[in-house]
Write a structure and sequence with these properties.
The protein is about 30% helix and about 25% strand. By secondary structure, the protein is of the alpha+beta class. The protein has a domain at about 35-130: Immunoglobulin-like, CATH 2.60.40.
């Protein structure tokens, strides 16, 4: 088989599958067209907000945007606000120099969610670096306590244990009865 034919043989099923699976609606999904800071950019001065521009108007109410920095801190200072096709998120003073990631999730006009990330690098510490250094010693991630989670887990799985107990006790009684007859 010639290389061209072989390539066609590989590509054709994928193309057909994409058509059958309804790839066409996917073309209507919104896409991130640009951002500030730009993806993979080196930023010397800490930005005070992040903006994301999409290929269609975005409902800010359905959008979630987080901006995490070194150590996983979320620097978003509030929910995203929208102006047509652009979302803007205010930032708390950024901390240490390093890798930051904007993570967004928006909803396309057809109702399908679209999510993605915009990484950028802060090349010099932001104004929040000194403030961030102090509380990082304390476990600031503590508020995620588990009582609600354990109460969610607690209800349903009890009855299988009761069923097991009934079977075990029943077997024990049957065994005891048989022995006492013998
Ligand atoms: Cu869709």
């Amino acid at each position: 088989m010639s290389p061209v034919l072989r390539r066609l043989a590989v590509a054709l099923p994928a193309v057909l599958l994409a058509l059958v699976a309804g790839a066409a609606p996917a073309w209507a999904h919104t896409e991130l067209e640009s951002s500030s800071p730009a993806a993979n950019s080196q930023v010397g001065t800490a930005p005070t907000s992040v903006s994301l521009t999409f290929s269609e108007d975005i409902a800010a109410a359905d959008a979630t945007v987080s901006v995490t920095g070194p150590g996983g801190t979320d620097y978003a200072a509030g929910p995203a606000t929208g102006d047509g096709d652009t979302l803007t998120v205010p930032l708390r003073p950024l901390g240490a120099a390093g890798a930051y990631t904007v993570t967004y999730r928006v909803v396309s006009d057809d109702g399908h969610p679209v999510s993605g990330t915009v990484p950028f690098t802060l090349t010099s510490p932001g104004p929040g670096a000194a403030a961030a250094a102090a509380p990082s010693a304390a476990p600031t991630t503590a508020p995620q306590t588990t009582p609600t989670a354990s109460s969610d887990d607690g209800g349903a799985p009890v009855w299988p244990w009761i069923a097991v107990a009934v079977v075990v006790i029943g077997a024990g009684v049957a065994f005891a009865l048989r022995r006492s007859k013998a």
